[in-house]
Amino acid sequence: MEQSKGGFNSNFGFLMACLGSAVGLGNLWSFPYKLGVGGGFAFLLIYVILCVFVGYPLVLSEIAVGRKSKKAAIEAYEEIHHSFKFNGVLQTIVPFFLLSFYCTFGGYISKYLVASVAGFSGNATINTVDPGAYFEQNLLSNGGSALIWTVAFLVVTVAIVLGGVSGGIEKFCKIAMPALFVMLLVIVVRSCTLPGGGEGLAFLFKPHFDGMNTAKGFFDTLSLAGGQMFFSLSLASACLIAYGSYLGSNENLEKDSVFIVIGDSLVAILAGMAIMPAVFSFGIEPGAGPGLLFISMTTVFQSMGFAGRVFQFMFWLLIFFAALSSSIGMMEGGISAILDSQIKKGKSPSRFKVTMIMALIGLVGNAMTTLDCLGASDTMAWFHILGQPDVLDVWDAVAEGILMPLTGLIMAILLGWFAPHYIDDEVLKGSNFKSKGLYNVCIKWIGPLFMAMIVYGQLTSFWG
Q1: Predicted model pTM
Q2: Integer Cα distance of 109 and 291 in angstroms
Q3: What is the rounded distance in angstroms from the CA atom of residue 195 to the CA atom of residue 311?
Q4: Helices (DSSP H) in 234-286: which residue ranges?
Q5: Which of 38, 100, 267, 464 has its CA 20 to 30 A from that of 325?
Q6: pLDDT mean for each 10 residues of the chain (464 residues)
């Protein structure tokens, strides 16, 4: 590769890395509880529509722009149109905000994974204590202990990123993603066979539009689903552009983009099928918030005897893989942009130095999030800024609430109006661009309309 930043050894490795970046806590943690808040079926329907008309065009755009420029977001945008370089800068900032709370949940998951191993002893606390109390006592009321787990998760992320694109990221994702999918299917089968689990499936798939009978209700659901789509697909976060810059020139970008969108959406829906039947089976509130994943699934596993300990271990290993693969993608988006800057200045790119910078920023951000204990502690009350109730929501409001949908909108305007057909030649290197008609309509008209509504909805959601 001309940038001396590395590259993927295979298209399968690239797909697994992109899917790994997309399939993370956005699917397995955020999607189920936002699905609950959004009313189930109505949220799911809007989410699928957005994936088709916004998600696919943007995924294809970002991968194609990255491969065409062989650069990360900042320099890639400058090559398209020098006046839009600012959008690359904004997208490169996004992973810094996301990483600042992502490793906190990675730490929570690491704690549960280790506890699930200890759970095989039979008398471990995770098997006997009330799940809500366990989450509260071990993490929300013990920020110091939670910070240790957060740092451990960050260290693992850094170690894989230091291995480079093919030696670290690709190797991990080629193993983790197939394993994740198999384990998720097993969990789904068990959850759907729980007594009363059918109510959870009906909540997901039976047509109903509760909460959408007013304009405000519609925009609330649209913004919730739209923000989730951007977060889940890693859109407008510099990651996909960076990964595209590492991809060989003859790969079929259309098929790759379809695979990423469908694969990510399928995992999100399966996550809903894993968690919602359990939620209804045990009478848990579907919109219970960020702790839903930890409390609902622990409740299920405790009810299953020894089999529950096996499923418990598989589940938290699955979540750990998902969280780690996305954390890697976020970090790489920022790293790739900084490496570009070093190359542009005639310097030899140093992955180690840049990764350490990202790690330090991630450490500071996550320390603030972890010690805040999702707003349960007064330690970080001084940073409950921008009208948000906790540090997590501060980072999320800036990243998912503003920057991701806004910079996605700007990208659509750029490729739809200022530089139309910019990616055509790049896509045609590996396919006949059969979706060109749909792409052009979406990137110029449908996508911007939806994204403008999402931006409005997010602003009113976080600050309305």
Answers
A1: 0.91
A2: 11
A3: 17
A4: 239-245, 253-281
A5: 38
A6: 63 81 74 84 94 96 96 95 96 94 93 92 82 87 92 94 82 84 86 90 88 81 90 90 89 94 90 87 75 80 84 86 86 89 85 93 96 92 95 94 94 97 96 96 96 89 79
